[in-house]
């Protein structure tokens, strides 16, 4: 008989909570997952997965017998000692993180409880210390999550690093959490405040990389350089690295916008003005709006023009619409008097609740019918495989603004499109650059 693994409790079954529950079950742990939304708990108990995340549904199905979903806190407390807090911490009007859901969880813990509270929710540095002050007997561990939507299951099972923060007195609790993660990879042990800062600083740094390359892209447009080549050349420097240097129409999602603001506010609350992050946020806001200028440069006034958006989710392989660039872009286009029509392979239902006055279609081609221009907003794979020649015939004007530099400009030009990317040079320059690379990689004796 296999040995019984430590039971795991999960509080809040949103993206992070559900992935955490599924993956610990996959590792052989019994899991009790609690959420206050009875409807969500009922759906999950019936085996209906409430979010779109590759691999998650299969994993939950495979491990259905190990996971109990409940609304009942006492069932959770009876079922597990180690409790992962995965509730959301959205920004408040002041830009600080809203910790009310975290506080509600803490208030539900009985006094003298021997449970270990493991904070996965992103919270400002100092939160752990405050919770420990309120509940002196409680064991508290910070274990920030670094999951990316769309690859969350893979990220959980193969993490770059696991950070476990604990303060003196909680060494045993930290060791118990480390045991859970031991099969997965390298663990970094720190104090609680540093663990909290690692999470915020990591997201703020990645967002900074994106805003940086977006500004470089904007300069590339002025000087005729190609941001893809620039990013490739920069990324070859190990100190810089190649990831998160994809220029586009700005970052979105449930983490970057919120965490960058939260870190800026956290610093501000201590009296420190984090100037760099102010610029990162502003660049990101302006980047979403630059598409409008590109459309105007080709179409003149957008009044009455029919603009198709391909992709609405904040990135591919998710139906998450939180802080999606499409929301700002659609509203801006409507503000210019344009008629906006859109398609997303999975996010249409969620998007429909948020995008007033936007016509949602059942296919990409239907969105392009009669459009004066198309903007690629989210780089879903199926958009690269679209029959673009057919699309050009269906559109009023074959103009594409590729907001993610995802499409092949030469193929689009061959299909009859006027093509605009973000910081991409004219196609003739790029073709000559790649033919130089080809010649250089050909042995000298074979060169013409
Ligand atoms: C992010 C972090 O990567 C993850 O570690 C953290 O736990 C949660 O926040 P996520 O929001 O799921 O994950 O998506 P990510 O893949 O990081 O992309 C965020 C946004 O940045 C997307 O809108 C994406 O389109 C954009 N992005 C990303 C770029 O514009 N350029 C890039 O080079 C990379």
State the total count of DSSP E strands.
14
Reported for the largest beta sheet, the result is: 6 strands, parallel
Helix content: 40-55%
Distinct ligands: uridine-5'-diphosphate-xylopyranose
N- to C-terminal distance: 69 Å
Compute the average pLDDT. 92
Assign the structural class, choosing from mainly alpha, mainly beta, alpha/beta, alpha+beta, or little secondary structure.
Answer: alpha/beta
Query: Order of strands across the biggest sheet?
Result: 3-2-1-4-5-6
* Percent of residues in β-strands: 5-15%
The residue ranges in which pLDDT falls below 50 over 5 or more consecutive positions are: 427-448
Globular, elongated, flat, extended or rod-shaped: what is the shape?
A: globular
Radius of gyration: 24 Å
- The total of helices stands at 19
Concise account of the structure shown:
By secondary structure, this protein is of the alpha/beta class. The chain contains 19 helices and 14 strands. It has helices spanning 15-26, 38-45, 56-62, 73-79, 100-108, 127-134, 152-157, 171-181, 192-223, 227-235, 256-269, 275-299, 325-335, 348-354, 364-368, 381-384, 388-394, 409-414, 427-441; strands at residues 8-11, 31-34, 67-70, 82-85, 116-119, 139-142, 162-165, 187-190, 306-310, 339-343, 359-360, 373-376, 399-402, 418-420.
């Amino acid at each position: 008989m296999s040995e019984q693994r430590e039971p795991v409790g999960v509080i809040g079954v949103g993206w992070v909570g559900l992935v955490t529950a599924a993956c610990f079950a996959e590792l052989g742990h019994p899991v009790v997952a609690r959420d206050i939304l009875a409807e969500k708990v009922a759906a999950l108990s019936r085996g209906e997965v409430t979010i779109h995340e590759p691999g998650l549904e299969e994993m939950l199905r495979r491990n259905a017998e190990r996971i109990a979903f409940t609304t009942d806190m006492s069932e959770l407390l009876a079922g597990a000692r180690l409790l992962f807090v995965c509730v959301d911490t959205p920004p408040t009007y002041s830009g600080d993180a809203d910790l009310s859901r975290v506080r509600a969880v803490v208030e539900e813990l009985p006094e003298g409880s021997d449970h270990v509270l493991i904070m996965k929710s992103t919270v400002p540095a100092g939160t752990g210390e405050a919770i420990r002050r309120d509940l002196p007997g409680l064991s508290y561990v910070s274990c920030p999550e670094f999951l990316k939507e769309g690859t969350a299951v893979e990220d959980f099972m193969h993490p770059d690093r696991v950070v476990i923060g604990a303060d003196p007195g909680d060494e045993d609790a930290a060791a118990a959490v480390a045991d859970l993660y031991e099969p997965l990879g390298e663990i970094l042990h720190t104090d609680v405040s540093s663990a909290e800062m690692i999470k915020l600083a990591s997201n703020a740094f990645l967002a900074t990389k994106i805003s940086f390359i977006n500004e470089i892209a904007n300069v590339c447009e002025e000087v005729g350089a190609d941001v893809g080549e620039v990013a490739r050349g920069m990324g070859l420097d190990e100190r810089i690295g190649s990831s998160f240097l994809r220029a586009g129409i700005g970052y979105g999602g449930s983490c970057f916008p919120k965490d960058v603001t939260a870190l800026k506010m956290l610093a501000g609350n201590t009296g420190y003005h984090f100037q760099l992050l102010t610029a990162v946020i502003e660049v990101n806001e302006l980047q979403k709006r630059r598409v409008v200028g590109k459309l105007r440069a080709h179409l003149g006034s957008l009044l009455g023009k029919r603009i198709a958006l391909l992709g609405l989710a904040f990135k591919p392989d998710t139906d998450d619409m939180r802080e999606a660039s499409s929301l700002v872009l659609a509203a801006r286009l409507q503000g210019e008097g344009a008629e906006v029509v859109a398609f997303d392979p999975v996010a249409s239902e969620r998007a429909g609740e948020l995008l007033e006055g936007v016509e949602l279609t059942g296919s990409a081609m239907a969105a392009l019918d009669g459009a004066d221009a198309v903007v690629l907003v989210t780089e879903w794979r199926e958009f690269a495989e679209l029959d673009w020649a057919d699309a050009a015939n269906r559109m009023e004007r074959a103009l594409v603004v590729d907001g993610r530099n995802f499409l092949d400009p030469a193929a689009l030009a061959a299909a009859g499109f006027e093509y605009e990317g973000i910081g991409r040079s004219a196609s003739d320059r790029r073709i000559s650059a790649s033919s130089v690379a080809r010649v250089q990689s050909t042995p000298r004796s074979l060169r013409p």
